[in-house]
Amino acid sequence: MSARGLALDTAAWASPWRTRRVLDKAILALGLLGCAVALPPWPGGVAAGVSALVILLGPGRVPARLLARCMSAPAVFVIIGAATVMVSVWWDAGPRIGLASSQSDLALQILVRGISGALCAFVLATTTPMVDLFAALRRARVPDPLIEVASLTYRLIFVLLDSARAIREAQDARLGYTSRAASYRSLSSLSAAILVRSWTRARRLEDGLAGRGYVDALRTLDPPVRASRVFIASSLVLVAAIVCLALLPGYLPAGTLPSILRGS
Question: How far apart (Å, rounded) are the C-alpha atoms in residues 116 and 54?
Answer without folding.
Answer: 12
